Amino acid sequence: MNPLVFDGVGTIWAHDSEGNLKYIDEKINKVTFQAQFDWEKVMGGDSGYAFHYTAKDLADKVSIEVPRYSSALAELSQGAVTVEGPVSFDESEEGVLIPGEGYTVKRPKEYGGKFLSGSEEVYLKDNATGKLMKLGKAASTPTAEQYSVTDEGKIISDTSNDKKNIIVIYKWRKDSGTKSGLSGTRRPKPFKLVHRFELLDDRSGKPVPCQLTIWRALGGGTLDISQERKKPTVNTMSVEIMEPGITADNPNGYAAELIFGI
After folding, report:
1. Are strands 11-16 and 81-96 parallel, antiparallel or unpaired?
2. Burial of 217 from C-beta contacts in 10 A (0-12 / 13-18 / 19+)
3. Which of 129, 153, 162, 218 would give a disulfide with 115, using CB separation of 3.0 to 4.6 Å?
4. CA angle, 123 as apex, 227 and 92 as ends, to 5°?
5. DSSP assignment of 153-181, as one string?
6. Distances (CA, A) of 71 to 23, 96, 145
C-alpha cells in the first residue's frame, strides 16, 4: 500500500469482556500507539559487537487523551463503580431574609430536586466583618437566635433579623442521577478497544478507512476531575496491552491490529 501520513483522530469505543458496549466518544484529542521492540545484547570475547541478541519484553505504549469526563471512562481507567438512581447533593447558598417572606433555598427548584429538611445549617452573616453566627432550629415562632424551615426550604427568623444576610448549608435530593464510586481497592477490568479513523492517500487524493484494534486492553493513567477557571481539563487513559488468546473473531491471537482500506 502507499505510505500514509497520520493526522487527525476519529472515534473510539470499548466493549467489556462480556461483549457489552461500555464507552464511545468521538470528541477525542489524541490516540497514541507506539509499538516498541528492543534487543538485549549478549557480549563476549574482544569484539565490541554482540554475538547474540535476546528479545526483550515488548514495551508497546498506548494512551488516549479525552477532553471531557464520563462515568464509563472512570470505569475503564480507574475501576470505578457506576451507580444510577437517586442522589443527594450538599449545597450552600447566601441570601437575605426578606421581611414577611424569609428566604427560600433555590438550588432544588433549579435542578428539579427536593430539599431535605433537617439537613440544614443556618448562619447569620455580619456583612461588615464576615463573622458567622449559627442559629438554632425552632419548631415554631423563632427568636432572634433561631430559625424555622418548611419542607420546601423556606427559612424564617425573628423580625429583628429582617434584611440580614444568611448562609444556608443543606442537602437536596434528585430522583435520578449517576455516581462514580472510587474505592481504595478498585481495579480496572480488561476491555476491547477500537479506534476508527480516516486518513488521506496523498497519491490518489482519496480517503482511506483505518482502524486500530487492541484485542485485550487494561486501563490506567490519570482521570482528571480538576476544575480551573477558563481551562478545560484533559483525561489521559494509559492502556496496557494484554495477551488476548485465540478466539473466533481473532483466530491469529493478535494483541493489536492496524487495518487500512487501501
Report:
1. unpaired
2. buried
3. 153
4. 25
5. -EEEE-GGGTT-EEEEEEEEEEEEEEEEE
6. 9, 38, 44
Backbone angles phi, psi at 123, to 5 degrees: -130, 135
**pLDDT per residue over 63-106, tens digit each?**
999 999 999 999 999 999 999 999 999 999 999 999 999 999 99
Number of H helices and number of E strands within the chain?
Answer: 2, 19
Mapping DSSP to helix (H, G, I), strand (E, B) and coil, where does residue 113 land? coil
Q: Which residue has the cell 477557571?
A: 229
* 128 contacts 136 by C-beta, under 8 angstroms: no
| Cell of residue 228, nine digits | 480551573
CA 222 – CA 134 distance, rounded (Å): 40
User: Residue 232 has what pLDDT?
Assistant: 86
Q: Give tens-digit pLDDT for 204-252.
A: 888 999 999 999 999 998 888 888 888 888 889 999 999 999 999 999 9
Q: What is the pLDDT of residues 136-179, one digit of tens each?
A: 999 889 999 999 999 999 999 999 999 999 999 999 999 999 99
CB atoms within 10 A of CB 214: 24
Instruction: Give the containing element (helix H, strand E) for 65.
Output: strand 61-66
CA angle 183, 189, 191 (to 5 degrees): 145
Indicate if the pLDDT at residue 180 is higher than 90.
Answer: yes
Look at strands 165-181 and 121-125 and give their pairing: antiparallel
Q: Coil, strand, or helix at residue 197?
A: strand
